[in-house]
Design goal:
This protein has about 190 residues and is an alpha+beta fold. Helices cover about 15% and strands about 30% of the residues.
C-alpha cells in the first residue's frame, strides 16, 4: 500500500506557481477509527484489543487535562503536541489579554530522526556524513499515482498550489481555513 496522489494543475492566476503541475494527496473518504487502530495494535503485541481501545479512548481526555495545565505532550514515536492560538494585535500593553486570543488549535511537531544518506571527504581528509532529518512516522511511506479522483470528492483544483506552499490547499479533502491574523504562539520554553 502507498499514499495515493493525483497530478493537478495550479489554475490560480495570482500564484507564482500558476500553470505548474503538482502531486496532490488523495485520501480515502473513510477515517481509520479507534477500533481499527486497537485491532491493528492487538495483532502486533500481546495486549487485548479491549484494553488498547480503553487506553486510546482515555488519551483525548488525558491530553486535554495536560493542555489545560499549559503542558506540552511528547508521545514517543509520534511527536509533540501543544496548544497554539492566534491573537488580535492591540496597541497598548494593558489591552493585551486572554480576550484577544482567537483560533485555538493543537500544534503537532512530528518526531524526527537523523538518517545517514552518504558521506564525503573534506579537503583535509576528514570523512563527513551526509544526512537528512526524517519524520519518523512517514519516513518509509511510499507514494503511488492514482487516477481515482473519486477518493477525494471535495477536491478543488482552482487553488491547488502543490508541495511548495505557493498558495492553495494541498491537504486533500480537509480544507484549511484562511487566517487573517498572524500566529502568536506561546513561547515553547525549549
Amino acid at each position: 500500500m502507498a499514499q495515493k496522489f493525483i497530478k493537478s494543475k495550479n489554475n490560480n492566476r495570482q500564484s507564482e506557481a500558476y500553470g505548474k503541475y503538482f502531486a496532490t494527496a488523495v485520501y480515502d473518504e473513510k477515517f481509520i477509527t479507534t477500533d481499527q487502530i486497537a485491532d491493528f495494535i492487538q495483532q502486533q503485541c500481546s495486549i487485548k484489543k479491549s484494553d488498547i481501545k480503553a487506553a486510546l479512548d482515555e488519551l483525548g481526555g488525558a491530553m486535554k487535562h495536560f493542555f489545560e495545565l499549559g503542558q506540552k505532550i511528547r508521545l514517543d514515536g509520534i511527536g509533540i503536541f501543544k496548544v497554539g492560538f492566534s491573537s488580535i494585535g492591540v496597541t497598548k500593553l494593558e489591552d493585551c489579554s486572554a480576550a484577544t486570543i482567537t483560533d485555538r488549535r493543537v500544534l503537532f511537531q512530528p518526531e524526527t530522526e537523523r538518517v545517514v544518506v552518504g558521506q564525503t571527504t573534506n579537503k583535509d581528509g576528514k570523512i563527513v556524513q551526509k544526512y537528512v532529518v526524517a519524520k519518523s512516522l512517514i519516513k518509509d511511506v511510499l507514494f503511488e499515482e492514482t487516477h481515482e479522483n473519486a477518493m477525494n470528492p471535495k477536491k478543488d483544483n482552482s487553488s491547488a498550489g502543490g508541495g511548495n506552499n505557493q498558495g492553495g490547499n494541498n491537504s486533500g479533502s480537509i480544507p484549511t481555513p484562511p487566517v487573517d491574523e498572524p500566529d502568536y504562539d506561546q513561547p515553547s520554553g525549549d
